[in-house]
Amino acid sequence: MQEDIVSYSMDEFNALIMNLIVSMGYGGGRKQVEMDLTLNKDEKTVEGIINEDVLGLRKIFLKAKHTEDKILIDEINSFTEFVNESNVENGVFITISDFEIPVNEEKNSKIRLVNGKELHQLIFNFGI
Question: Can you name the CATH fold of 5-125?
Answer without folding.
Answer: 3.40.1340
